[in-house]
Amino acid sequence: MHTSCPVCSFSGMHLSKKCSVFKVVLSALLIVALLQLIYLSFLSKFHGNQQRYRYSELFGGSGGKKNGHPEKNSRKERLRFSLSTGGIFDNSGQYRVYKNLIKSDFTTNHKPGSIPSSHVLALATHTTINNLHHLESLVERWHNPLSVAIFAHGQDVKFATALVYALSFFCPQIQSLVDFHLVCLSGEMASFPEQDREHFAGLEDCASVFSRLETHRDKYKNYAISGNVSYPNNLLRNVARGGTESSYILVIDIDMMPSADLHQQFEAMILGRETASDEVFVLPAFEIRHARKMPGNKAELVQLYQVGEVRPFYEELCSRCQAPTNYSRWVNSHVRGSEPLEVGYTLTWVDPWEPFYIGPHTVPLYDENFKQYGFNRISQACELQVAGYKFSVLSSAFLVHRGFKIQGEFHAKKDEENKRNRVLFRSFKEGLKTKYPSSNRRC
């Protein structure tokens, strides 16, 4: 009679139990994986709905209070209205200008002529979408009213419209302080970006808008805009200037940074002295290595200057253009930075000085015939000289350009444009004799 082995019987039972445990574990893992897939699917659907909602909130809807966001819809409707005007042509008829395409809360909440006396200084700047990413750090430094004129061409017209609206929508500081103006060719028109959902669906907060702008930062070099289109820098400067109502204006390029607390310090200075309508206040301009942190005050700047990390603006490209500022005199005075801002010294304009300055809103406009590279700022400084203005250098305020400007970084037609604008500058100077017949000053 055959008898089963107890050991074999025990082994079979043990193997069966192992198989059962394995099946349970495997089933549990499959359930967990299935739950994860369901969760990820839910997240994806939720994120998609959230993106569609964000896009709809930005660019969809018809405005009014029915969508539950009266303030945001009001902003949307103001943009629609600005675009519906079709803008205005500049004096040459070559460009279309959308002034106050998007107004800041500061401008919206103050009627024309009612800007409070405490806001005597505004900052005005100009750019293409290529450099608009600089706005983030500029607003962080400035903290006060800012007017930005943007030039866009071709597909960038719609892109610029959408991006500046998104900036004003998602970024509280920009919403509060920045006025945007748009300039394009006269044959182009800006429109409300309602049909570009895929292109703009990723915009969900301020950081995402600046990330999108970062992708455009190297689209083209300086003035080398596609289609051989001329960058109307002086028109843009005038548009940005015209978008402010402050008593004094500082006009800079968007990749420059003013010293910290300049707004507060200048207002304290100007409110405590007798004003003169024929005086401009020069800010010495520098350039800094890209890797270096922007200095906030004069002591920090001088320290970097002494070790060669900061140098006079345009030192390599045209040292004569800034040399009259007298950098050695400025660097070696009022270094502590604790003194109140004041006029350090006054200079007589000499050719070819093209200073950056704070000026009253009554200073002559920039001549809009100058486009692209060369003589666009010096022509205006030249007119200030002939018109009788005094150039007073501020003791501790300054500007810093991001990166050293070096030979070879400019677009291919730089020298050709400079030559053409030199001829225009000669004609411009002759015109000043007629415009200011009683002046004995020349430039």
UniProtKB/TrEMBL annotation:
Its cofactor is Mn(2+). This is Beta-1,4-glucuronyltransferase 1. GO terms for molecular function: glucuronosyltransferase activity; metal ion binding. The chain crosses the membrane at residues 21-42. It is a single-pass type II membrane protein. It holds the Pfam family Glyco_transf_49. The gene is b4gat1. The keyword Transmembrane helix applies. It comes from the Eukaryota. Pathway: Protein modification; protein glycosylation. Belongs to the glycosyltransferase 49 family. It catalyses: 3-O-[beta-D-Xyl-(1->4)-Rib-ol-P-Rib-ol-P-3-beta-D-GalNAc-(1->3)-beta-D-GlcNAc-(1->4)-(O-6-P-alpha-D-Man)]-Thr-[protein] + UDP-alpha-D-glucuronate = 3-O-[beta-D-GlcA-(1->3)-beta-D-Xyl-(1->4)-Rib-ol-P-Rib-ol-P-3-beta-D-GalNAc-(1->3)-beta-D-GlcNAc-(1->4)-(O-6-P-alpha-D-Man)]-Thr-[protein] + UDP + H(+). GO terms for cellular component: Golgi membrane. It is found in: Golgi apparatus membrane. InterPro entries: B4GAT1. One of its GO terms (biological process) is protein O-linked glycosylation via mannose. Keywords: Glycoprotein, Glycosyltransferase, Golgi apparatus, Manganese, Membrane, Metal-binding, Signal-anchor, Transferase, Transmembrane, Transmembrane helix.
